[in-house]
Design a protein that fits this description.
Mean pLDDT: 82
Distance between the termini: 96 Å
Low-confidence stretches: 1-18
Helix content: 40-55%
Number of strands: 7
Strand content: 5-15%
Radius of gyration: 42 Å
Number of helices: 15
Structural class: mainly alpha
Strand order of the largest sheet: 3-4-5-6-7
Amino acid sequence: MSSSLNTTATTTMTKTMTARKLYGKDLSEYEHMDVDELLTHLSPEELEILSKDVDPDDNLLPPDQRCSYACEKGSTGPVNRKQLIDFINKIAMETPDRPELKPYIAGTIRGKKWIPPIMPMSKAEEEIAIDLGDEYENALTNASEEELVDLAAILGFHSMMNQEQYHSSVVNKGQKLGLGFHGTAKAYQPNPLPFEPPNLTDIEKSIKQIQADDYNLTILNLNNIQLSDHQFLSLFDALKSNTHLEILSLCNTGLGDKPGLSLADVLEKNATLRSINVESNNLSPSTLVSLVKSLLSQKYMEDFRASNQRQQTLGNKIETDITNLVEQNPTILRLGLHLEYNDARNRVATHLQRNLDRKRRSKNRIG
């Protein structure tokens, strides 16, 4: 039964397809016709009529031959550009404008004014909404724009104002009237900062004080003083037995890898240092990993800064090693390193925040 139905459906479809005709003939008769032979039987007038009806899609033909439009007018002479432009302007001036359905009147709205629909608040916006209380609500509602600029500066929203407005808020000088958040920023002469005075710390005297374990020397600042490798090694050798120095700053001192590894050995043995700064030196990424690893031995270091080294980009492997070492350190509170990858930055920031919370809770229990 099903085979007979299939045969009937096939026969009906075949009859329907073969019933289509063109100029009294079935379409199947045109499949094997030679088009070139048919064109040879056409007259020039018929070929011209056919070329106007057909637009050949051939990129090899020039555009004037692909276009079916053919101008039969004779040439009127060379093109006069000025005369052509004058004629176009004349036609434009003489052609009347289309009459407006509603004449233009300044200050009136023609047609229906578009009003944007009120979008429902998202879940995040609903969570941000805070009830400040009647007192703060009234104060913010009645505050002038200059007072709001001062408030934004106090809260640290630097991107909402220029430097002059922020400085005026910090020194309590008062804001200029009319500037506000949307006022035009004007140029002003910046106040030059005075040059930093040279560091006059006596290196040899400081090394002798550290060797003698002087209890008065708790902070040593050698920034911007170029030290030799011999001076670095003498300083670090004295630090191994020092029990009073807490803060050591060696920014821009020419610290390299060889004395840097000696410093890592010092950090493994010294239990007094709380903060060390070795920024703007020539430490390689592997030496930075050794320094961060040395902080795990005593676990007394709270502030370690080592950004702006010779090699700006540490790489994924070095950043991963530093992140793993930082997550094992329960005392580090501040880490001054430029980490390129988001995962490393987020993990380090989360761990530092966890250490800060742990220290705050311990202080509260002691208090």
